[in-house]
Write a structure and sequence with these properties.
alpha+beta, Ribosomal Protein S5, domain 2, Butyryl-CoA Dehydrogenase, subunit A, domain 3, two-stranded antiparallel sheet, 9 helices, 6 strands, about 15% strand
Length: about 290
């Protein structure tokens, strides 16, 4: 099964007092890179979140955000630390006594003093449990999207691979004619240069040159890479790096084929071959 590294998933769960929202986005990356943004009250969950994500993803850059919001219609209950407020008020009175001109203590300003007012907080243990459960659910949704996109990419890659196979087969059909044509050209060139070579030596030189220009080995390797590529697409493990390596091998054989090619028609097919390989390479970058 092929997994795309690109995906998005969003999930939400609600309780009587709050709502939890997870959003996960993944894009291409050489390795697994996890970036999380969690509410301050839930930062302790980050190691567990990373562990759960690493079970699902092998490669790719993941940006995850967890939001904790108060449920709509829930009245916010403010708790006043009266002991702290009294201490702050008494301190303010003492300071006012030192001043010739002082304003009376304002109750609203007193409530703004850090620690005087506390909002009622949800049960963080339950919220933490709900957040991890929701993360698992969103990861399932993300995986489904990555699988769907992976199928689409696999289809595109298979189509390009079939076109490459057809080009390789077409070039192979013309190998005999290409060899004969090269033999004639080289022999004519030797005669034009009026090299003083006997018939056996001339034939030996022609055979050596033809061997250097022969593309059978490159075509055989391309067929081998195509078979390995097809097997990799059927694999159930992360195959992105393997496919990326194979694309380098495809490109190497195509370049060698182009450098050896002495036929205009084959040169055109090699150009088409390189275009297909580049298209496949771009798609392979999206695979985990």
């Amino acid at each position: 099964m092929i997994f795309s590294m690109t995906g998005f998933a969003r999930g939400e769960t609600k309780s009587k007092s709050s709502s939890l929202i997870w959003e996960l986005r993944t894009v291409n990356h050489r390795y697994l890179d996890i970036s999380l943004r969690l509410p301050d009250d839930l930062r302790a969950l980050e190691p567990d979140c990373r562990e759960r994500i690493a079970r699902v993803l092998r490669r790719g850059k993941l940006d995850g955000q967890l939001r904790l919001e108060a449920a709509a219609g829930i009245e916010t209950v403010l708790e006043v630390d009266e002991q702290r407020a009294r201490a702050v008020a008494e301190a303010a009175e003492r300071v006012n006594g030192m001043l010739s001109h002082s304003a009376p203590i304002n109750g609203l300003e007193l409530l703004r003093w850090p620690g005087v007012v506390r909002e009622s907080r949800p049960d963080l243990q339950q919220v933490s449990s709900d957040a991890l459960k929701l993360l698992d659910e969103v990861l399932v949704m993300l995986t489904a999207m990555r699988v769907s996109e992976g199928r689409r990419i696999a289809g595109l890659l298979s189509d390009r691979a079939q076109q490459i196979s057809a080009i390789v087969a077409e070039i192979r059909k013309h190998i005999g004619a290409i060899r004969a044509q090269l033999h004639t050209k080289l022999q004519a060139r030797f005669e034009e240069l009026k090299l003083n070579l006997d018939a056996n030596r001339l034939e030996q030189e022609l055979v050596l040159l033809l061997q250097r220009l022969d593309v059978t080995e490159e075509l055989d390797r391309l067929d081998s890479h195509l078979a390995e590529f097809a097997n990799s697409l059927k694999g159930g493990d992360a195959v992105g790096r393997r496919l990326d390596f194979l694309m380098q091998e495809f490109n190497r054989e195509a370049n060698t084929l182009g450098s050896k090619c002495q036929d205009a028609a084959v040169t055109k097919q090699v150009v088409e071959l390189k275009v297909l390989i580049e298209q496949m390479r771009e798609q392979v970058q999206n695979i985990e």
